[in-house]
Amino acid sequence: MSNIGIIAGGGKLPITIGSNLIKKNFKVFFFVIEEFFNTINYKGLDVTVINLKSAKKIIESLQAKNIDSIIMAGNIKRPSITDMSFDFQTFKLAKNLLLNKTGDNSLLVSIKKYFKDNGFDYFDWKEYCPELFANNDNLTKLKPTRKAIENLNKAMSIFRSFGEIDVGQSMIIQNQIVLGLEAVEGTDNLMIRCKDYKKSGDKGILVKFAKYNQSNILDIPTIGENTIKLLKECDYEGIFLEKDSCLIIDKEKTVDLANQFKVFISTCNKIE
Q1: pLDDT band per the 50, 70, 90 thresholds, residue 147
Q2: pLDDT by residue (tens digit) across 85-127?
Q3: For the segment 168-191, what is each residue's pLDDT rounded down to a tens digit?
Q4: What is the mean pLDDT of residues 49-76?
C-alpha cells in the first residue's frame, strides 16, 4: 500500500479525509502549511510542517517520508511572489500559481501536473470515503417545500446555461430570482451578503454544486455546522447539495444541527 501525503491547508477537511483513510488502514502523513498548524488538532498524527515559500523544500519533505501519492485539502491562499524563494522548483510552481489567470479549476489542474511531474500521483480519496458525502435524497427530518423545489429547478437551469464557464459553486435564490452567486468570498459570505436582498415571499435556499467539468478530486464543495448556523441566522429554508459530490464535515453533527434548527439538507442530481 502506498504512502499518502496530505498537503493540508486550513479547516477540518484535511483531518476529516486523513482520519477516515487511517481507519481504513491507509498509511497517511500530513504536511501542514505552517500558518494552519495546530498541535491539538493534529495530536497523534504524523505531521510535517511546511512553508509554501519554497516548493523545493515541500518536495524534499514528501520524499523524506517516501510519499507516493498526495491529496490537497483545506483552505490555501496564493502566496505573494515577494514572499517566495527563487530556487528552480519554486519558480516552476510560481509560474502556475501567479501567472495562471484562467480560473481556479485550471490552476488546480496545473498544480496537480506539477506534483505529477515530480513523481507524485494524485490519490482519489473519494473512491474510499463515500460516506463523507451527501448521498441520500433527504438527510434531515424536514423536507423542502414546493417553493424550494421551484427555486432549485430555476437554479439548475441557470447553472446549466453557464456551460464550461469557471464560476462559483453556490447560489442563493428566492422567489425564483437569483440573489447572489458565489465569488471569491466563499459560501458563508455569500449567505450573509444575500440576506439583505431578500423580499417577501418564500424564505430562499442555498444551492451548491460541483463546478461544471471540474477536476473534483481537487476542489470539493463542502459544508459543515457553520453552514447550517448561517442558514438559520439568515432565515433561509435550507440547502440542496449535488448528490455524491458535496462533502459534509462532521456529517452526523451537521445533520443533527439542521434538524434542531429546522432547516433541510437535500440532494439533487448532477447538472447534465
Answers
A1: very high
A2: 555 565 555 555 555 554 555 566 677 788 888 899 999 899 9
A3: 679 999 999 999 998 878 899 999
A4: 89
pTM: 0.83
Average pLDDT of the chain?
86
Domains and their CATH numbers in the chain: 3-128 (3.40.50.20), 133-268 (3.40.140.80)
Which backbone phi and psi does 102 adopt, to 5 degrees?
-100, 15
Distance CA 239, CA 180 (A): 14
Residue 81: alpha-carbon gap to chain centroid: 25
Q: Exposed, middle or buried by CB within 10 Å (0-12, 13-18, 19+), for 49?
A: middle
Do the beta carbons of residue 158 and residue 178 sit within 8 Å? yes
- What is the pLDDT averaged over residues 1-8? 90
pLDDT at 267 over 70: yes
Asked whether the beta carbons of 194 and 179 are under 8 A apart, the reply is: yes
DSSP the chain: -PEEEEEE-BSSHHHHHHHHHHHTT-EEEEEEEGGG--TTTTTTS-EEEE-TT-HHHHHHHHHHTT--EEEEESB-PPPPGGGS--SHHHHHHHHHHHH--S-HHHHHHHHHHHHHHTT-EEP-GGGG-GGGB--SSB-SSS---HHHHHHHHHHHHHHHHHTT----SEEEEETTEEEEE--TT-HHHHHHHHHTT--SSS--EEEE-PPTT--TTTS--EE-HHHHHHHHHTT--EEEEETTT-EETTHHHHHHHHHHHT-EEEEEPPP-
Give how far Cα 200 sits from Cα of 66, 70, 177, 179, Å: 59, 48, 12, 13
- What cell does 27 get? 498509511
